[in-house]
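Q: How would the structure tokens look for this protein?
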Amino acid sequence: MNTDFVNITTENLANEHLCCIIRSRKSHPGIEAKRQWLSDRLNEGHVFRKLNAKATVFIEYAPLETAWVPIIGDNYYYIHCLWVLGEYKGKGYGKSLMEYCLADAKEKGKSGICMLGAKKQKTWLSDQSFAKQFGFETVDTTDNGYELLALSFDGTKPKFAQNAKNERIESKELTIYYDMQCPYVYQGIETVKQYCEMNDVPVSLIQVNTLQKAKELPCVFNNWAVFYKGGFETVNLLDIAYLKRILKK
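A: Here is the predicted structure in token form.
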């Protein structure tokens, strides 16, 4: 196993590839938006650690106090994403990345680590069965099956902000909350825009561009959340087939 890992810093951010959408030469607007988002987060203690190779092998986490999610707790880390893809799966890279996060949390005197999960594993969320092998357990839930998983070092527990359990908004039109943390969000927004314009579907695209907005969201959120007819639908990015299924409701 290649053990050459690198952490993204303000000094190397411009030159390191960001794993999710790999491009050799052609720039990608989602990647550039991600770089800008990261440039502001790194000084807040945000960590992006990746294999030093052109591969999708990385972990991304942040102090819960500055993590753009409607979760509250004291002195925790929040894991936004842990992803190992393709030929690198099953070789211990995920374990190595999780162990790094655990060691970092203990070294900094954190109370624990948490992450978003679900009663049934959902796409675009890190593998919760993998996290449970390290001792993560469910500490809070929502009525529609999402869970907050946590590994506590001192017995304290984070929780969803109460507003995250509302799962209702006044608007009945298709509404998507998003931030630019994930490079795939850019193309997800473009896909929804084009489909809605071509089919005369009213849509409201709301960028979550401050920590306060993220903490006050009316649903669980990792970087994307969809409402329709006033009700919360998913944190999954949408392809056309999924969007059509939602609009038929």
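The chain has a mean pLDDT of 93.

The two ends are 47 Å apart (CA to CA).

Upvote if useful.
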